[in-house]
Amino acid sequence: MANSDWLMVRRGNAPLVLGMPHTGTDIPNDLLPRFLSPWRARKDADWWIDRLYAFAADLDATIVRTTLSRSVIDVNRDPSGASLYPGQTTTELCPTTTFDGEPLYLPGQAPDEAEIARRRDRWLTPYHAVLTAELERLREAHGNVVLYDCHSIRSHVPRLFDGELPQFNIGTNDGVTCDSALEAAVERACAATGRSLVVNGRFRGGYTTRHHGRPETGVHAIQMELACRGYLDEPDKPDETNWPTPFDPARAAPLMVDLHAILTACLDWKPA
Prior knowledge:
The protein is of the alpha/beta class. It contains six helices and eight strands. Strands 1-2-4-3-5-8-6-7 form an eight-stranded mixed beta sheet, with helices on both faces.
């Protein structure tokens, strides 16, 4: 395990890399006083994803995750600031609101363009440089490597999507970022669980998937957005007293079994 103060890398030798861009809750001390609420600044983390996928180390997968809160900078956004979902509501490279539309910063404290550029250079660029290096290392060893980008979100976020989100949301940017047989294998593994799923629905893959996924070069990227209800209890109205729900290994165990089967499908896949 090679660590920095904000980036953690568990290096494995299997042709599988797990990206975890939103598990972090750390906010630098010089930035924290500028937020309206420390809880609000951490509210939209992909809660407990690192614990949910902890078993991936036993599969000898490489795991790359940041401990930084996405409210500081979202390393899964296009560094140019361009929207990945034109015409749909989404948060920015350096978010100024929560998923529910609540303001994050005190008046006059949101980052300007110069500061956004500094944050991008300090955190987003190095994160993707590490992913690139690990993918290249494993591609050279195996010929093909799968990048599986790990995410989760509350099942109901009306500002972002209607109704209840399916349990498994598979994103390949409409089939561009990975071999079609890999997408099909992951879809079959999800369907075998009996849980709801969609392929390239509301979440078709963020910057990580779209930037690194180049199947013609042997790098196959797929995003998995999980509805949180699969592994924790979701309050009707999240607030400081009830969100996030503590991680309960027993509560999460059935979904972890399903995720093990999904990652195994990624490892078993071979290009035609």
